[in-house]
Amino acid sequence: MPQSRDITVLIVDDDPVVTAALQAQVNRVLGFRVVGIAHSGHAALAAAARFAPRLILLDLHLPDLPGLEVAHRLRRPEQPPADVIVISGRKESATVRAAIQRGALYYLVKPTRTGTLEQTLLRYAATAEQLEASGRFAEQQEIDRIFRSLHTDQPFRPKSISAATEQAVLDALAEVAEDVSAHELAASIGVSRATARRYLEHLVDRGLVETRPRYGPTGRPQHRYRAR
C-alpha cells in the first residue's frame, strides 16, 4: 500500500508512450506515486482539480492549450496548490524564461534520462522536506540551502556521515568570519577533533568548504577551513 506521505504526481503529455514511460520512472522513485495522467491541457486542469497532486510534470506541447497557459491556469485560486516541473523538447531561452515566470520550479529537456528525472525528484523531495520542517527561517543561509537543495545534485553521503552533524558543521562555519581549525570547530559543536576533521574533509570533497594550510613556528602546517 502506498504511504499517505508519498508525493503525489500528475503527468501531462500528449504522447501516451511518453506518459507510460514517465509513470514507470516516477513510480520507481521511493516516496513518489503517480495519481493521474492527462493528454491535453483541459484534461490536466480537470485532473489537477480532482486529484490535487503535490507535483505536476508538464509538457508544453499539448493539443488544445499551450503548456504555458496550463501552467498559468494552475496558479488560479480555484485550483489546488501544486508545484510544476516542465518536461519539454523546447530549448529556447524565451520559453524557459516564460516557464519560470509561470511558476515552474525546474525545466527538463526531452528526452529525459531516467537518472536525471530521478535526481530531480529526489532534490524536490529533499527541498519539500526542509520546507515542512522549518516553521520560520532565522537566517538567510537557511533559505539559501533550500534553493541549493532544489537545483544542486546531492552527492552520495557515506554511512559514517550524519546529515544532522554535517549541517551543524556548515552552520558553525557560516557563523564565523574567519577560517577555523578542526580543533576549534570540534569545541564549538561538541564533537571530537577526529570527527570534526572527518566532516570537514567530506565537505571539502563536496565543494562546500575550502581549506588552506597555515604555517606555525614549527613549520608544520595547520589546516584551516571556511565555508565557500
TrEMBL record:
Pfam families (UniProt xref): HTH_IclR (PF09339), Response_reg (PF00072)
Source taxon at top rank: Bacteria
Modification type 4-aspartylphosphate: residues: D59
Compartments where located: Cytoplasm
Domain Response regulatory stretches: 8-125
Keyword Phosphoprotein: yes
Keywords: Activator, Cytoplasm, DNA-binding, Phosphoprotein, Transcription, Transcription regulation, Two-component regulatory system
Entry protein name: Transcriptional regulatory protein
